[in-house]
Design a protein that fits this description.
With 465 residues, the chain is mainly alpha-helical. The protein has a domain at 1-253. The protein is 71% helix and 3% strand. It has 22 helices and four strands. Strand 3 (82-85) and strand 4 form a beta hairpin. Helix 6 crosses helix 8 and helix 19 runs antiparallel to helix 20 (412-425). This is Zn-dependent protease. GO terms for molecular function: peptidase activity. Keywords: Hydrolase, Metal-binding, Metalloprotease, Protease, Signal, TPR repeat, Zinc. Residues 1-37 form the signal peptide.
């Protein structure tokens, strides 16, 4: 798991956040893709990504999104939140941490799928344009009244003009917020439909809204329900509770195997983001379970003795030899202990067992091979990192390792092109173009690598316009 710094919004601030939602906040959605490239704290983890994809697959099928190329992105933020932008669905690690059952997260995914299937993003952009138009017209009418008041020396008329301009902006804002609340309710109803189609309970959705209601109550904030972009949690519960409880799937629980995977993901997130003490307290509430033992091994790896961590990982592998992520953990521990050759073997076993065919695991093996440092191992590292990139083109750190490996082999052009790719996928198009141009001077003209470098250069030129 990649552990990145995060900006945290505590539950105590929920009410304040809701109360201050404005047109400007809504307009941030259009810049979300750029923020993804420049500042969203993304978490990459093969195990958790595979779990969330398994949660989403039946929902996407029910929503007609199975061929839409939806990518789920994990965000390193401990607040309970999820959102969509373009063809990406963002889910906070905090949502996974706080959700005690898979069904709660599946309900979140179903809701966001409702937004995607309903085309809500495009319609929101249309509504934003409409709201801006309403505000502009109101401003022009108000300005006309002010001018008329000045021409006739009528202070009352001029004052009415200011009121008209201000009131028009407020009407536009409230109209947009009302539209957003309607779309949220539509996404809730769509989510219930998808859950029913897939034979799953909507109980997790009710649990989520009850959590929001509790956080809002604890904040002590007074919220005007007409000045927020989402329906109030209690209203959502009232509107959906009867419908959810009538479903024949209402009391259907998640399978024991899925619950175990969910718990292991939660303990891993706790170990990486909550610190040793908090993670240990969470683990202590589930004594003796395989998930708790996994969490304990993660905590020992991060904060304890490598030898003890390896012993715990080996015990986990003995309990579940076919679990690829236990072998991945063993590889992490061996890398930390300075034993890259054994780590490469452990990662190789994880790759062999991985049903999701994650692009992350081959890159991790590539890093271990790089650490071995022999020419043969470095050549294998290049092959493994490229294998990972074939499955996951946007793995920015993989390009850095690939550039290092190519440099160690004396392949300067390939190293510079890999560096350019890393900058490109991070959104730094100008820097990408610089390295692509340098690579081109050493590449065969019109070769596939040379053409790729040209594409990156062209993107850099577009960014400068």
């Amino acid at each position: 798991m990649t552990n990145l710094p995060i900006n945290v919004r505590s539950a105590a601030r929920v009410g304040k956040v809701l109360a201050t939602v404005s047109l400007g906040v809504a307009m941030l959605a259009s810049a979300c893709a750029q923020s993804f490239a420049q500042g969203v704290p993304v978490v990459r983890d093969a195990e958790i990504e595979a779990l969330v994809r398994d949660y989403s697959r039946p929902i996407f099928n029910a929503a007609g999104l199975s061929k839409a190329g939806i990518q789920i992105v994990l965000v390193n933020d401990k607040s309970f939140n999820a959102f969509v932008a373009g063809r990406r669905m963002f889910i906070n690690t905090g949502a996974l941490m706080q959700a005690e059952t898979p069904n709660e997260i599946i309900g979140v995914i179903a809701h966001e799928a409702g937004h995607l299937a309903g085309g809500h993003q495009q319609r929101l952009r249309d509504q934003l344009e409409r709201a801006k138009t309403m505000a502009i017209i109101a401003g022009l009418l108000g300005a006309g009244a002010i001018v008329a008041g000045g021409a006739t020396d009528s202070r009352g008329l001029a004052g009415a003009g200011i009121g008209l301009a201000t009131g028009g902006s407020e009407v536009a804002r409230r109209s947009l917020l009302s539209y957003q609340r309607g779309e949220e309710m539509a996404a809730d109803r769509s989510a219930i439909t998808y859950l029913d189609k897939t034979g799953q309970s909507g109980k997790g959705m009710l649990t989520t809204f009850q959590r929001f209601q509790s956080a809002l109550s604890l904040s002590g904030a007074r919220v005007d329900p007409y000045r927020v972009s989402h329906p109030m949690p209690q209203d959502r519960i009232s509107n959906l509770q009867t419908l959810i409880q009538k479903s024949p799937n209402y009391n259907k629980a998640d399978s024991a195997a899925l619950q175990q995977r969910h718990d292991m993901a939660r303990f891993k997130i706790a170990a990486y983001t909550q610190g040793q003490a908090a993670a240990s307290r969470m683990i202590a509430k589930n004594p003796g379970t395989l998930a708790a033992r996994y969490g304990d091994a993660q905590v020992t790896y991060l904060y304890g003795n490598p030898r003890s961590a390896q012993s715990k990982a080996d015990a986990l592998i003995k309990a579940q030899p076919g679990n690829p992520y236990f072998h991945e953990l063993r590889g992490d521990i061996l890398m930390k202990a300075g034993r890259p050759k054994e780590a490469a073997t452990a990662y190789g076993k994880a790759i062999q067992l991985d049903p999701a065919k994650s692009g992350l695991l081959p890159v991790m093996q590539g890093q271990a091979l790089l650490a071995i440092g022999t020419p043969d191992a470095v050549k294998q590292a290049v092959a493994q990192i490229n294998k990972g990139l074939e499955r996951d083109r946007e793995n920015i750190s993989a390009y850095r390792h690939l550039a290092q490996a190519q440099g160690m082999l004396g392949n300067v052009a390939e190293a510079e092109l890999a560096t350019a790719e890393g900058y490109y996928y991070s959104g730094a198009y100008k820097d990408a173009a610089i390295f692509a141009a340098r690579a081109q001077t050493r590449l065969k003209p019109n070769s596939p690598a040379w053409m790729r470098a040209q594409d990156i250069i062209n993107q850099g030129k577009s960014a400068r316009r």
